[in-house]
Amino acid sequence: MVELASVKDIRLADEHDEFEIFKLCSLMHSEQPYHPLSWDKIVPMIRLATSRVRGIIGVIGERHDLKAAIFLVLEPIWYSDDWQLLEFFNYVREDARKSNYARQLIRYAKTCADSLGVDLTIGVFSNIRTEEKCRLYGRLVPKMGEFFCYSPPARIAAMEQAWRLVNEPPANVAAAE
Q1: CA–CA dist 137, 4 (Å, integer)
Q2: Which end of the chain, N or C, is less surrounded by CB atoms within 10 Å?
Q3: Average pLDDT over every residue of 114-143
Q4: What is the Cα–Cα distance from 74 to 96, expressed in whole angstroms?
């Protein structure tokens, strides 16, 4: 990939950041457990980006304490010979959300798209604080369409049960009480 312009407080992740990025992925999934995690898929995709092979991850924070990250992959548009920079995630750790990190990461993604000379496809795919997130993205990137997702009722009940369990204290804490 071409050398990308730097943005204040954001740097390109490398292999030394992978463990912290995996932790962010785990935190992100615990908040929005729509589908089971597959580390067999996550690990090679993160490594693709940390080695800068058709992907990059912009991070905020120290190597041992990442606060936020945006994962961008260079992908062809399915119906065209043109390429796009596709956001896989933009995540800010819960304890860092009173910052402007999400905004900074979106601006960073735009800078990357400018550097590469390709479109940026970026957005919100969440049922948590969706309107707030959409307003943020809408202030920074032109809107183009919307996404909709249908989940069968049985799947929704299972996701709600998983979400309740995620918010319960660990068994050893409950047992100690």
Answers
A1: 22
A2: C
A3: 78
A4: 28
Q: Which helix (H) or strand (E) holds 176?
A: helix 171-176
How does pLDDT run across 4-29, given as a tens digit for each residue? Answer: 545 678 999 999 999 999 999 999 89
Please, what sign has the CA dihedral across residues 120, 60, 56, 94? negative
For residue 90, list its beta bridge partners.
70
CATH numbers and ranges of domains, the chain:
11-147 (3.40.630.30)
Contact 104, 112 (CB under 8 A): no
- pLDDT tens digits along 52-78: 988 999 999 999 999 999 999 999 999
Q: Where are the beta strands (DSSP E) in the chain?
A: 11-12, 55-62, 65-76, 83-92, 119-121
Q: How many CB atoms lie within 10 A of CB 111?
A: 17
Q: What is the pTM (predicted TM-score) of this model?
A: 0.79
> d(Cα 34, Cα 160) in Å, to the nearest integer?
9
Residue-wise burial string across 144-167, b where 16 or more C-beta atoms lie within 10 A, e elsewhere: eeeeeeeeeeeeeeebeeeeeeee
- State both tokens at 54: 């058709």
